[in-house]
Amino acid sequence: MTLHAHAPAGAERLRGECLTAGYDERPVVHEVDFRVPDGQVTMLLGPNGSGKSTLLKTLARTLAPAQGRVLLDGTAIHRSSTREIARKLGVLPQGPSAPEGVTVRELVALGRFPHQHLWRQWTREDERAVNDAMATANVAAFADRPIDDLSGGQRQRCWIAMILAQETDLILLDEPTTFLDLKVQVDLLELLVRLAHDNGRTLLVVLHDLNLAAAYADVLVMMRNGRIVHSGTPETVFTAGNLRTVFDLEANVIRDPHSGRLLCVPALSSPAASRRIETACAPA
Predict the structure, then answer these.
(1) Low-confidence ranges of the chain (pLDDT < 70)
(2) Residue 175 half-sphere exposure, CB side, CA atoms within 13 Å?
(3) Angle at CA 258, nearest 5°, toward 255 and 262?
(4) In the chain, what are the domain boundaries?
(5) So what's the pLDDT on residue 3?
């Protein structure tokens, strides 16, 4: 199914203006202006406590800003109904949990909630959307199995399928790869990139892994102390200087000779660690 954006020409569909947000009257995000580029994968990076998850929650309407506003298609998002927003915006929080015993198909079908009304019950269109979402997320083979029986990576794909069943073209994900094996993380990120590049969806993703973010992002955004300090392509943002100032990390940024992707390699301050590397790399 082709999804259509509704933003005015030349404007991003989702943006925040002068956002200040936090918890218990304690600001975590400070006067942030932020636009989510349409049709691309934007990765939010930052050290713990930098405000990246708080910013995403504010943009997702799960946290009301103390100051500023979030606009979706030119309308203040916190003044719109939950159902109306859910037709346009899909959100996957950290560590989602499903009711005990729910099957994959039942979970994915929850994504059709925004399209249900008292006068509109389950339809063939809903069934098609659920089947398409499971196929795209590669979980159709598990359709009748309980979510609890699946691996962590399989469960995460099921949650993404639920978001896809909403048939929104804006998707926000908060650390979707946490606690997953590296291969599973890579497979999941490749799925997200395909959603943007092949299906025209817009994704905003909070991620911890610096190298994976640099490898898969179209746009990298670095936060520190509740403010955006760098934003742009990985080529311009993923530098040794920025890693030092944002993460207090001494690292070299190199280019993988096979993929051409940028990688950060932490600098070794310990002579013993350096000797172990040299020994491991020495010819037999």
Answers:
(1) 1-11, 117-120, 269-284
(2) 16
(3) 25
(4) 14-239
(5) 47
Q: Give the per-residue pLDDT at 272.
A: 54
Distance separating alpha carbons of residues 102 and 86, to the nearest angstrom? 22
Residue 271: per-residue pLDDT: 56
Three-state SS sequence of 164-177:
HHCCCCEEEEECCC
Report the pLDDT value the prediction gives residue 259, as an integer from 0 to 100: 87
Which residues make beta-bridge pairs with 81?
A: none
C-beta neighbour count of 117 within 10 angstroms = 8
Indicate the pTM of the whole model.
0.87
Looking at this protein, which amino acid is placed at residue 157? R
The CATH class, in words, for 14-239 is alpha beta
pLDDT (0 to 100) of residue 268 = 74
CA atoms within a 13 Å half-sphere pointing along the CA-CB vector of 115:
19
> Do residues 175 and 157 touch, judged by C-beta distance below 8 A?
no
| Cβ-proximal residues to 243 (8 Å cutoff; 6+ apart), any chain | 210, 249, 251, 253, 264
What are all long-range contacts of 222-226, with beta carbons under 8 Å and residues at least 24 apart? 222/45, 222/46, 222/246, 223/44, 223/45, 223/46, 223/50, 223/51, 223/52, 223/55, 224/46, 224/47, 224/50, 225/30, 225/50, 225/51, 226/27, 226/28, 226/29, 226/30, 226/32, 226/50, 226/51, 226/54
The CA distance from 103 to 47, in Å, is 36
- Say what the pLDDT of residue 79 is: 84
